[in-house]
Amino acid sequence: RGIKIVVDYFQKLGHEKVKVYVPDYRKSKYDKKCLIYPTLDIEILNDLEKRNILNYVPSHYIENQRVTAYDDPLILDAALENDGVVVSNDNFNDLVNEHGGKWKNLIQNR
Question: What is this structure's pTM?
């Protein structure tokens, strides 16, 4: 529900282009290999995907370990290209000085 709250908040502020990125293992309600954090409210994710707001990031299993694609550059590039902001619990410190510092202002100020 938190994702929907954030999407609704930014849309109420007048932002027409809101994008959400989540790992694709969240597509199913029950992931037998990941019972610690089951996906609740899968209907919300389905609705956001149908409305072209939600984007899934690839993930897979290697030797019973879930591996999710490193999506930080994708998210930061999308924000730069659209003059957007990033709402995340990731502080992206590992990318502040990457690629000639192109994400530095975005990470530190947006």
Answer: 0.78
